[in-house]
Amino acid sequence: MAAMADSRSATIWLGRLAYLICATLLLFGAMIPLQFTPSTIPRPDVTLCLTLAIVLRRPEFAPVWLVGGIFFLDDILLNRPLGLWTAIAVLSCEGIRSQEYRFRDLIFPFEWVFVAGVMLLALLVNRLILSLSFVPVTGFGFVMLHFFVTVAAYPFVVFFCGYVLRIRKVTPDQAIQFGHRL
After folding, report:
1. CATH number at residue 115
2. Which residues does 132 contact at the CB level (< 8 Å), separation at least 6?
3. Which of 55, 91, 169, 177 is in the most buried spot, having the most CB atoms within 10 Å?
4. How far is CA 66 from CA 62, 175, 178, in A?
5. What pTM does this model have?
């Protein structure tokens, strides 16, 4: 019994380490200038896609403290208002985490639409709070383009999670083993 618990604990910590490494690489990749002129198409928020994909597949791999730390580091290094996007991302992840059991048996398009709705709500709340606090914001068209690019990147991130990281949705047996809601 102890060996099984150790195996489960090792699986969880390896999953957390994989998430941390991927998120850190994505963060530093976002800081690398790829061209000298500004781009007309924004980069997708792949860190958010990765986090939401992992939370929907294996929520124990992305605990709230790890998600908060990654997005706070993201805020610091990408020169965003400290804590705003972190709070929105953590609340989005916790909202998705509470609904994770509903998506175990659904096909991918339903998941994609749900995640797109959560992303849209997160971007609109971020924009609303920035506007109410009189922080200069980018044009609404650019924000929507960023949303569409991020939503378009989500299937590729899910493919990466499933086939490279081997993070797949929880089966009913694994749900019982890891103490998930049925």
Report:
1. 1.10.1760
2. none
3. 55
4. 6, 21, 19
5. 0.89
155, two tokens = 């299937």
Task: Count structural domains, the chain.
Answer: 1
| Residue 125 φ/ψ, nearest 5 degrees | -65, -40
The one-character DSSP state at 78 is: T
pLDDT per residue, tens digit, the chain (182 aa), is: 455 567 778 888 999 999 999 999 999 988 887 777 777 788 899 999 999 999 999 989 999 999 999 999 999 998 899 999 999 999 999 999 988 888 888 889 999 999 999 999 999 999 999 999 988 888 889 999 999 999 999 999 999 999 998 888 776 666 666 666 65
> What is the DSSP secondary-structure string of 7-54?
HHHHHHHHHHHHHHHHHHHHHHHHHS---SS--SSPPP-HHHHHHHHH
Distance separating alpha carbons of residues 106 and 90, to the nearest angstrom: 24
**Are 19 and 62 contacting, i.e. CB atoms less than 8 angstroms apart?**
yes
* Domain boundaries, position 69: 2-178
